[in-house]
Every structure is written in C-alpha cells, then in structure tokens.
Write a structure and sequence with these properties.
Layout: H1 9-32, E1 37-38, H2 40-57, E2 75-76, H3 77-97, H4 103-113
Antiparallel strand pairs: 1-2
Helix pairs in contact: 1-2, 1-3
Length: 119
Amino acid sequence: MQAKPKLGPRAIAAYNRFSKDLAALNYVLRVAKPSGMVGDLSLRSLNRIIHTANRLFRRAPDIPHFVWLDLERPLTVADFAILVTRLTAAALAFEERYAHLTEAGLRRSRTDTLPPPSD
C-alpha cells in the first residue's frame, strides 16, 4: 500500500486556517439560515477563502479550481450554499489525500515525533 504524501508545516497551518473559515460558513448556512442577498463584506471573505482554497488545492488535479466572485454582481443565498458545499467537498477530498490532516493521522504523526522511551 502506498503511503499518503505529507504536507509541510506552513501548508498544514494554512489548511487549518482555511478549515476554520469554512466551518464558520457552514455554521452560518446550517444554524443561522440567512436569507436575502449576500453582502459585500461576505463576498470579500468568500473571495479570500477561494484564494486560499486555490492555493492549497493547486497541485491536486482532481479537486476543482474555484472562480473568484464578482463584487459587483449579487450573490443569492442558494449560490452561497452551493459554493460552500463545493468548498467543503474539496476540503474533504484534500483531507483524504493527506493522512495527517485527519484525526487518526494527527495522532499517528504525534507519536512518530515523540522521542523513544528511555530505560
């Protein structure tokens, strides 16, 4: 069985920041249940998250590239929900690719870096 590739510390930190932002977007959709149009501040935040996602996923040909949002065009909540769902699916595919981004992989990598017990 082929071992999964590893990410460097900077990429892991970037992914952790991305996943927190994505979790906030999912929270808004599932708990707050917004209605109406998405505002300018939210569009700018989405563009920042899209930029981060594209940088993280650029070496993964099976993960889609996300197009920046036009700040001059309105975005409906349905479009917002579709975009967040696509970002979440891409993040899950990325986590599956890199073992140490999953909970089991984190535990394994922590035990790999611990010094051997002394006698």
